[in-house]
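Here comes a specimen:
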Amino acid sequence: MKAVRGPIPASGASDMAHVVLAFEDNRLASRLFGQFDENLALIEQRLSIDARARGNKVEIRGDQIACEQARRTLDYLYGRLQAGNEIQPSDVEGAIRMAIAEGDQLMLPTLEKKGRMSLAQISTRRRTIHARTPTQDAYMRAMERSELVFGVGPAGTGKTYLAVAHAAQLLERGQVDRIILSRPAVEAGERLGFLPGDMKEKVDPYLRPLYDALYDMIPAEKVERNLAAGAIEVAPLAFMRGRTLANAAVILDEAQNTTTMQMKMFLTRLGENARMVVTGDPSQVDLPPGQKSGLVEALRVLDGVSNVVTVRFEAKDVVRHPLVQAIVEAYEEDATRQRTAAIPPQL
């Protein structure tokens, strides 16, 4: 890809720029711009620039910083296409977020200042997942290097999905012998006798999100074989007591619904050559009133412990429908207002 910078307009708007990008492969350029230039339109909307495609070239006009963000977005996505990957609107959204993050003062050290963006990725035989937000990038890299990672924040940020993807990658690489996925069945108080069916049928509804993520990473027939062979285990938290989980990728989901004792029990299951990821949203605790969340306690107690990494997601990291982000932000703002109103005035 070649970039040509045009002259700055004589109007005195020194913060405006004109950039022309030329892509060598016309076919890839067409896929980059999207059907009816839909990808360019999305970049225009998010960065408030003007982008017009002509053949294998695109002209970008607007604020200098925004033009540079657009250039890096297109450069990164073109590299994805060159590597044989497809790009979807969600990939464009993610690339834009990462390009914008590079200008922040708290820019992640994993991002390069110049050249093509370097985003964390997880690869399984079925698909490759790229980070779509700076926090996802930090989370994916933390799971790669640390034995115990806490991923906390609102729904829709990819905490559980990325953890399961990482576990699938470790299993395929032979770095672990098995995957263990767990959740507290708090909705039934872990007293499941009144539900119909055998034990598996009783607990499966609470574990369904973990199954869904597995099937997205690993072919269905292989998931079934691994489940039958014990190489993949999906079980409620109550089943973890008394075990030592070695040579395994272990994930505890919805951890905000654990008690302090349950969380301690789970964390102390960590055995040799094991990786553990704990995910949850402290703002959505379903425990009985007055009972402390084991996740909240663990974050406090383990703060500063070596090789324990906590990655905190925020509303801006939501990668589902844009309305989900707006909903999360609205609830966060309401909670802030209520906390402020509850503070007694200073005398």
About this structure: The longest helix spans residues 322-342. Residues 5-13, 105-113, 188-192 have pLDDT under 50 and may be disordered.
